[in-house]
Specification:
By secondary structure, this protein is α+β, with helices and mostly antiparallel strands. The protein has 2 domains: 2-70, 3-Layer(aba) Sandwich (Glutaredoxin), CATH 3.40.30; 83-196, Up-down Bundle (Glutathione S-transferase Yfyf (Class Pi), Chain A, domain 2), CATH 1.20.1050. Helix content is 50%, strand content 7%. It contains 9 helices and 4 strands; from the N terminus they run βαβαββααααααα. β1 (2-6), α1 and β2 form a beta-alpha-beta unit.
Length: 210
């Protein structure tokens, strides 16, 4: 059995877990504390998750490379380039959910402080992100309305593709955002992917803000 070193909240880790579920690949789950730099560096030479350790001790350290390795039968094909879409969604989604991620059970006080120091350099104080929620949410709602038009029922496809796993892993973080209202088709889309991928993210739930 392969071993997956990951964070619960991280969309790049979530995409690998979704892929494992869809491909019916069992894995040993090892959640790394966010402030733990030594463990990932000792395994892969850098602090970046997810990390996959194979049965013959090979190490793979990029989410797409991990999925490619696991998908030997090439069941998860990518029919469109969604890099720009993921970047645009991520800008608003991460600004919305980061202040809430840090209050989930995944984060100890030490992890929380480490997370703040790292993320606030790029995005500013988490409290300000909360204060600017309406701005991020307004932009995101425009993006989600456009995304709805491209679901048939999956992203530009009648069948689930790798793109759906990449998109869903970003969108999933929004379930932690208090009182956020998903457009109906987006919620249905995510729940369909959850079912197809047998995804369990029960450790991440709504929490108080910082």
């Amino acid at each position: 059995m392969v071993e997956l070193f990951h964070y619960i909240h991280c969309p790049f880790c979530v995409r690998v877990r979704l892929a494992c579920g869809y491909l019916d690949i069992p894995f040993k789950s090892t959640v790394i504390p966010y402030s733990d730099e030594e463990t990932p560096r000792s395994i892969a030479g850098k602090k970046m998750l997810p990390i996959l350790k194979t049965e013959d001790a090979n190490i793979i350290n990029e989410s797409l490379d991990i999925i490619k390795f696991l998908d030997q039968e090439q069941r998860l094909k990518q029919n469109h380039n969604v890099d720009m879409l993921l970047s645009e969604l991520g800008q608003n989604i991460h600004s919305l959910v980061m202040p809430y991620w840090v209050w989930t059970p995944e984060f100890s006080p030490e992890d929380r402080e480490y997370f703040r120091q790292k993320k606030e350099v790029k995005r500013g104080p988490l409290e300000e992100l909360i204060n600017n929620r309406s701005n991020f949410e307004s932009k995101l709602n425009v993006q989600l309305k456009q995304l709805e038009t491209e679901l048939s029922p999956f992203y530009k496809s009648e069948k689930l593709t790798l793109n759906d796993i990449l998109i869903a892993s970003h969108l999933w973080g929004l379930y932690i955002l208090p009182e956020f209202q998903f457009p109906t088709h987006i919620h249905t889309y995510l729940q369909t992917i959850k079912k197809l991928c047998r995804f369990d993210n029960s450790s991440q739930f709504r929490s108080k803000p910082c």
